[in-house]
Amino acid sequence: MNQIIETLASKVDKQEKLLQELDEKVKAIPDNSGKIAEIWKRMHDTFIQHSLPKEEVVALTAALSQNIRIMKTPRTESLIHHHHLSKVIFIVIVLVIVVAVLSMGWYNTADNLNQYKEADTKYCFLKLQDSRSIQQLLTTTDSLYYRTPTLRDSVLRQEQLKNDRLEMLRLATEQEQSARELRRKAGERNR
Q1: Looking only at Cα atoms, what is the longest distance across the chain?
Q2: Do the beta carbons of residue 151 and residue 144 sit within 8 Å?
Q3: CA–CA separation, 70 and 33 (whole Å)
Q4: What is the Cα–Cα distance from 182 to 174, expressed in whole angstroms?
Q5: Which of 50, 97, 114, 123 qualifies as a FRET site for 106, CA 20 to 30 Å off?
Q6: Would you list the DSSP string of the chain?
Q7: In this structure, are residues 147 and 141 in contact, taking their beta carbons and an 8 Å threshold?
Q8: How confident is the model at residue 191 (pLDDT cuts 50, 70, 90)?
Q9: How far apart are the C-alpha atoms of 165 and 154, rounded to whole Å?
């Protein structure tokens, strides 16, 4: 047992010796804790100086979030095409029709005017004749015209009836000619 105690004592002595050596080595290391604390403080100040303010960071984060949300949704544009050519074509067509109608009206007016001039010329010619019976007929006709306001309608009706009779006579004559021709053709075939 003695031997164990001696072994333990020698080991404790060795440990003590090592601790003393370590203590001497630690004492030999210069104390730089003040410098480290000063460097730490300067680093902290530099970090605070170069860091962004909290309000600006929050505003920047909000703006970035909004821009990301906008970029995720595609932009939709609705284009409305206005074709004005169809309106121009429509206007041109309407104007052409208006010009055509006006031209026809102008032509008819000129034609009616020519008819009135012709009738007036014929009436004046009859008035200038030296024949007493013609003069008396014209005077009677003028007085009838002024006394009877419906004279024009009755004259137009009589003219229409006369024209209808003439047309029927013309058709009858044509049919008689076609009937003669058919008889002639029928007679030629019988031979």
Answers
A1: 195
A2: yes
A3: 53
A4: 12
A5: 123
A6: -HHHHHHHHHHHHHHHHHHHHHHHHHHHS---HHHHHHHHHHHHHHHHHHSPPHHHHHHHHHHHHHHHHHHHSPP---------HHHHHHHHHHHHHHHHHHHHHHHHHHHHHHHHHHHHHHHHHHHH---HHHHHHHHHHHHHHHH-TTHHHHHHHHHHHHHHHHHHHHHHHHHHHHHHHHHHHHHHHH-
A7: no
A8: low
A9: 16
Q: For residue range 58-101, list pLDDT tens digits in order.
A: 888 999 898 888 888 877 788 887 777 778 888 999 999 999 99
Per-residue model confidence (pLDDT) at position 60: 87
Cβ pair 180, 173 in contact under 8 A: no
Query: Which pLDDT value is given to residue 156?
Result: 86
Burial 56-80 (b: 16+ CB within 10 A, else e): eeeeeeeeeeeeeeeeeeeeeeeee
Best CA proximity match to 11, nearest among 64, 19, 146? 19
What residue has token string 């480290």? 36
Please tell me the distance from the alpha carbon of residue 121 to that of residue 127, in angstroms, as a whole number.
Answer: 10
